[in-house]
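Usage example:
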Amino acid sequence: MVTNITNFGRSGLSDWLIQRASAVILALYTLFMVGYLLLHPNLDYATWSGLFGSTWMRIFSLLAFVSMAAHAWIGLWTVTTDYLKPTAIRIAVQAVIILAIFVFLVWGVQVLWGA
Amino acid sequence: MSMLQVSVYRYNPETDSAPYMQEFQVDTQGRDVMVLNVLAMIKEQDSSMAYRRSCREGVCGSDGMNMNGKNGLACITPLSEVVKGGKLTLRPLPGLPVIRDLVVDMALFYKQYERIQPYLQNDTPEPAIERLQSPEDRDKLDGLYECILCACCSTSCPSFWWNPDKFVGPAGLLQAYRFLADSRDEATSERLAELEDPFSVFRCRGIMNCVAVCPKGLNPTRAIGKIREMLLANAT
Ligand code: SF4
Ligand code: SF4
Ligand code: FES
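Running the assembly step on the lines above writes:
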């Protein structure tokens, strides 16, 4: 057993499962977005803002944002532990990554509910 | 003339400040010999050349090395399989510390093997004759027990290069599954608990270098997938 305290789910199994589940959610969200944009070639502000005003779209978007946050944390954490061997640099980079993810998540929520 | 140009990694920490490649011309007399035979001819030219070998028939696992960029056993690799353009380049297995020339320090590799407790654990009092296994249960061990611990797989795995102290590596994981799959072993949940962290098993990225090089034709990636399935079934 190798202990770790900076990975997302504290266990390799949960990280692995979350990484796969979040990938599926992000793929669905991307497909939906591409499909929606293709079906609305003359998209105007009212329609776009209306889409994000609906509750289901806010749920779907928030789900995608949270998935993105988890996915990025797990993926980038793995990269830091593979390639950054000096502990101080590794922890610093992990901290910056986690902070950036947090900022983007809060910002995303603000954009969603600020519409 | 059937001269083979061989370039060999040389390093003697007592006299060399850095490793270097040494060129040899070897006369194979046109025969398709094994790489290990070529090494023997080189040793006749330069007796300081160091490499490991024992069985010279792919059983002991001691002459794993990197031949023209691919890991394998020198004793069962014919020149026709590896030589490109009349040239052969021999290097030690990648990722492990070099002791001398083609001899690497396998301590980390064995430490990972030791960690998975490669022995049967069963506290039930032994029956009078022996612990029986059905033919079906015995079949589950095929493709697992044949490993000769040559380290060709683990030293071709990038995940093992970056974290040899934390990632068990394909060879160790194949053996971990060999005991997880054994119907006579009773330590399954303890074994699984040791493996669920982010490194031991989950550092495998499924690149399958291990499968590509195993001289015994074994498939560590499949065994790793099975361990993941067992972990998932156990924890959800
Ligand atoms: S799995 Fe194959 S390559 Fe790996 S140590 Fe065993 S025999 Fe060698
Ligand atoms: S499949 Fe996994 S264990 Fe095999 S070489 Fe790739 S990362 Fe290593
Ligand atoms: S010398 Fe024994 S496997 Fe090659």
